[in-house]
Each structure stands twice: as structure tokens, then as C-alpha cells.
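Researcher: Final request for today, and then I'll write up notes for the group meeting. The sequence and the SMILES for adenosine-5'-triphosphate follow.
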Amino acid sequence: MSKTILSVKNLDVTFKNGRESFTAVKNVSFDVYEGESFALVGESGSGKTTIGRTIIRINPASAGEIAFDGRKISGVIDKELDTYIIRNIQMIFQDPMASLNERATIDYIVSEGLYNFNLFKDEAERREKVFKALNDVGLLEEHAERYPHEFSGGQRQRICIARVLAMQPKFIIADEPISALDVSIRAQVLNLLRDLKQERGLSYLFIAHDLTVVRYFADRIAVIHQGQLKELAATEELFARPLHPYTKSLLSAVPMPDPDVEKDKKLIVYDPTMHEYETDKPSWREIFPGHFALANEKEAAEYAAAYR
Amino acid sequence: MSETSNPILKVRDLEVKFRVRNKELTAIRRVSLDLYENETLAIVGESGSGKTVLTKTFTGMLESNGRIAGGSVEFEGRNLVDIKTDKDWEAIRGAKIATVFQDPMTSLNPLKRIGVQITEVIEKHQKLPAEEARRIALTLMGKVGIKDPEKRFSDYPFQYSGGMRQRIVIAIALACKPRILICDEPTTALDVTIQAQILDLIRYLQREYNFTTIYITHDLGVVANVADRVAVMYAGQIVEYGSVREIFYDPRHPYTWALISSLPTLARKGEPLFAIPGTPPTLFNQIVGDAFAPRNHYALNVDFEEEPPFFQVSPTHFAKTWLLDPQAPHADPPEAVKVMRKKGNIYTESGAEASR
Ligand SMILES: Nc1ncnc2c1ncn2[C@@H]1O[C@H](COP(=O)(O)OP(=O)(O)OP(=O)(O)O)[C@@H](O)[C@H]1O
Ligand SMILES: Nc1ncnc2c1ncn2[C@@H]1O[C@H](COP(=O)(O)OP(=O)(O)OP(=O)(O)O)[C@@H](O)[C@H]1O
Ligand SMILES: [Mg+2]
Ligand SMILES: [Mg+2]
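Model: Predicted protein-adenosine-5'-triphosphate complex:
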């Protein structure tokens, strides 16, 4: 594998609300390699978006460290580095309804970053960049003059993606980028993200709950539950040899586009109280080469034995 | 579900237009549809094809720049198209036909306690005293899987997780025992585990309360899980409909073929996914012929000139494509569709034998 582009080490994110505090992300560590699609999957509220928002510095890291391209980007940083990060790490936000300025035209929305960083010579070049980005996501030039409320949910999501692409970042955090899209546009967008990865060496932190899409798109997957990573492995390895019971329950819940299969579907339920962690404490262990899981001594032995 | 039962809702030649500045776009183009008592009908199709707009006409929720330009929606002996005022809609919307949207926060008031939001609806539509409404609300909360409803009754929406909020929206939708429940991407924002629970919940409640469900989603996995029948939309029209097995294992419309072909489950990793080339037509102009023709490499000359009628494939299965015309040349469906046929043990020759 090539060099590490993003490195997250022992990250904690704690939200304080008056006297109460809540740690949404606990001791999370992972690396994303250049040109890689690294997926984060896990239940709602498990901390996926929070991790993304912490990387782009919307949320502060409470503990741990984040590095991008070899430079530390968490904590206090200078203006130059801040600009560098904004240009090069872009996030496609989860909620397309909330993240678009309703009073701006699509043309303006897609150009906003270009304006902020003066990324065009003249008006003609700006228009060209906007149209290119719109076409890339399957929208028409005529859409540029329209306003967000005139678009369907899927169209709005594509506007968000166009806005990110217009910036030509190195690293994209794609938070559920395709869940509001129809199957075909989804294919277009995934192909586009894949092409950008191949042509420009772009890397992704890909957050999605549709595991059929993650399986196709991601090189490696990390499974997160209640703010903690439970398992991390190369994609096919994870599907072939899921170790942690939470991963197994997640995989069992994926709806397959096959009515006869769905009819006989059995859900595996994960009960977090099943672990016996009082004396034998869990830690992050490499069970198979490159395949990690959170497990105590006893579980680690069981996990390794299960696929022997 | 079967074609022998009576339709609970009958849509005929429905047309919906929106005014956008000085122009008008046609979002729904003469759609007809029967919805049968107790069935779950899934509507799938291209983003912007009109799924949401179509179902909004059933509850009078079109935005103010939209209008119904033709056709009818028959429900309980009334033509819903004739209802003009919000006051008249009250007897239908929420009471007889309820909708669950993708984002629960569009349906919940962030400043009001959860319990109040449920009882309000019950008091308003069923004209029951507060005590009785509270009792029903607590039962409903239990039914949608909220643990310890008494304790959670006075919480505000922000104290609930996304999945729990969506359960409350479902509870509110069911509070008036609607006859039709429209779910517009109700689980898109939820993770797979919660999604599986919500799907189970809707199925269980459907048995318990005997309502009919329209389910809009892009996730063909979800469709395979919930649907009895499937309608496929493209550019403001339904282009194919049939039983869930017919649509997955024996689709006939090239747009449905394209949908199946773009599934990542059937793709090989590292190879591009099949994506339909081009973009859907602009809805501002009159569409000539088959709207899908310019993106369809199975298109025949006639597709560019004349709109195809629906051809019958089986008593329950219809597709609006000239490929099913007895005079059409044989079309070999894409690989993915053949894979699906095998999975469903379907052994038909081509679509050519289908009768009109
Ligand atoms: N600004 C905030 N203040 C307080 N708590 C927060 C804040 N943002 C997030 N949280 C909490 O942190 C936890 C993780 O939230 P996050 O949005 O990261 O989850 P997620 O994994 O992205 O979930 P989903 O799949 O539903 O998007 C949740 O319990 C959430 O309520
Ligand atoms: N208020 C409006 N004003 C103008 N055009 C509108 C309005 N509402 C919807 N449209 C247009 O009508 C068409 C159908 O929209 P609709 O929301 O029904 O699509 P959809 O099939 O539900 O798409 P998605 O899957 O993305 O939700 C779209 O082209 C959309 O741009
Ligand atoms: Mg999130
Ligand atoms: Mg919609």
C-alpha cells in the first residue's frame, strides 16, 4: 500500500452540555492510505459523522491527534494550514436538505468555494467549472439558474457533490453521499468517485449504511459501535470472516435485492451485554493479518479459532 | 393484493404541473394506477421521476406553485382532485391517508413534547377526551417499540435518536388508523439495523391495523423485502408494474433492466457499475415518443416518434415499451437481468410473445 494520507490516533470527541458530558468518539485510531476508499459503517449515533466533522475541524478533538499529509491538523494550527485543509479536505454532508443555502442559485452554491479561494481566471472559466461539475453529477446546465427548493432530494444531493468536486480536493469525506440517490445516479456517482480516485489519486473516508454499496466501493472497512471501533479489515475479508458479533448483526440486516432471499431472511441481534469484560479487558487486536477486532483474550482465541 | 380485490385508490390519467418562474414543467404525465386493499406497493424510479409528487396529490400536499392539470384520484367514492381547501383535506390527510417522510424532523415539532404531538393528532381527528387520547398514545408508543412509553412521553424530539423519532412519526401516522400509509423513503436516513426493525414494524402494524402501504425507496433491497407489487417510474410516468417477483426476476422495460444492471451486488469489484448514459429529459418541454429512448440502446425507431402503450405480460404485469409489440425485433436483455432470471427460476423466451 502507498503512503498514509490521513492518520487518526486515539481520537476522543466529547460533547459538553452544561455539567453533563458525552463522549461520542472513544479512542478511535485508523489510517487512510493515498488513493484508498476507507469506509466507516455502524449504527445511527455511533459517531461516524462526528469523526468526519472532527477531521475538517468543525468539532474539536478532545484527545488524540489527527494528521493529514504528514502534518498535524488537530488542535491549534496556523492560517496557512487551515486554508490548505479547507481546500483539500472536503466533506459531502449527510443531509442535503439542510446543507444548501435556499436563497442562492445552484450556480452560486457550486461556485462558492471557487470564489472563496479565487480558483478561476475569469467568468468564463468559472462557468465552465460549474457546468463541468454539474455534468459530472448528471445535472443539466439549465439547472444552474434554479434554486434548491425546486429540486428533488436526489438532485439536491448531487448539487452538494458538485459543489465539492468543483474544489478539486485531495481527500473527500463522503457522509452517506448516495443514500438519497436512485440506483442509476448512485452508479454514476460511485463511478465518478472511483474515476477521480484512479485519475487523481483521491482518497475517501466513505460513510454509508448500505453495505452492498460499501462492499463494492471500499478497499477497507471499519465497523464502529457506540463511538468505538469494533472491527477493521479489507472489504472482502470482512464479508468472508466477520469476527465481532456486532459486525455479524450488521451484515445480517443488509437487505438484498432478491425477493426470495429476503423472504427467508434471519436477523442476528447484537446484545452488547454479552461480553464478559469485568476481569479480562478488551483491547484492539490483530486477529488475522490486517484484520483487527476489539476483543479480550478469550474472545480473541475464539475469533481466531472460528475460521480455522 | 390480488387483482380480484377492489382498488382502494384509483388514479386515472393524472397530470401535475409546476410553475417555475415564467415556465411550466410537467412532473406527472397522465399516470394511472390502482392500489389494492392491504397490499404494499413499492414505487421506485429515477430521482425526479415524480414519485413524491404523485403521492402528494393523494393528500393535497403539492406546493403552491403546483397544480393538477388533469385526471382523477378516486378514493372512497370521492375524486380527491376536486378538493380545494385545506379544511376539506383535513378529513383525508392524516385521517385516512397518512405519510411518513424521510426526515422525521420535517414531521415533528422540535419544541413540543413527543407525547403531546401524538395526542394532539388523536384529539383532533378522533375527537376524544385528553385522558383517552393519552392512553391510546401510550399504547401506540409501545406498539412502535419505544421502551417505557410512560417515561419517554414527556421527552422532546432531540432526546430521541433518529430511529426513535421515525418510530414516533409512524406512531403519529397510525394514530388515526389511516387506510393508506405512504412511506416516502422512511428509512433512508437510518442505519441497516434500525431499518430492518422499522420494516418489520411496518409489516407487523399492517397486519394489526389492516392498512394499505405505498412505499417509496431507491433501495431495491428494501423493495425486495417489503413489496407485494412494484411500480417503476421514469420522467413522470409509470413505465412498468407487476408483482415483486415479476419486476425483479422477469422485468421487461429497458429502464427496469437498467435499474437492475446498476446494482452493486451484481457488479464485479474494480469494474465500473452500469450507469444509464445521459440525463433524464427536461420536463419543461413536451416529450415525444418514449421518454427513455435517448438513453436506451434498445430503442427502436418508433420510440422516438410515438409513445408506447402498456403491453400485458401477465395478468398482473404490464410494461410500457415498444419492445413488447408483437412486431418488435427480439431484444436480448442485459447480463444482470439474465442472472436475476436464473435466481428467480424464470424460464421465458423473450418478451416478444407477450400479448397486447
Ligand atoms: N453537537 C453535538 N452535541 C451533543 N451531542 C452530539 C452532537 N453531535 C453529535 N452528538 C451525539 O454524538 C453521537 C454520535 O453522533 P453522530 O452524528 O456522529 O452519529 P452517526 O454515526 O453519524 O449517526 P447517523 O448514522 O445517524 O448519521 C450521537 O449520540 C449524537 O447525539
Ligand atoms: N415545488 C416544485 N417546483 C418546481 N418543480 C418541482 C417542485 N416539486 C417537484 N418538482 C419537480 O418535479 C419533478 C418530480 O419531483 P419528485 O420530488 O416527485 O421526484 P422524486 O421521484 O420523488 O425524486 P427523488 O427520488 O429524488 O425524491 C422533479 O423534476 C422536480 O424537480
Ligand atoms: Mg451521521
Ligand atoms: Mg422523492
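Model: The CA atoms of residues 148 and 181 of chain B lie 26 Å apart. The domain at 9-218 of chain B is CATH 3.40.50.300 (Rossmann fold).
Researcher: Thanks, that's everything.
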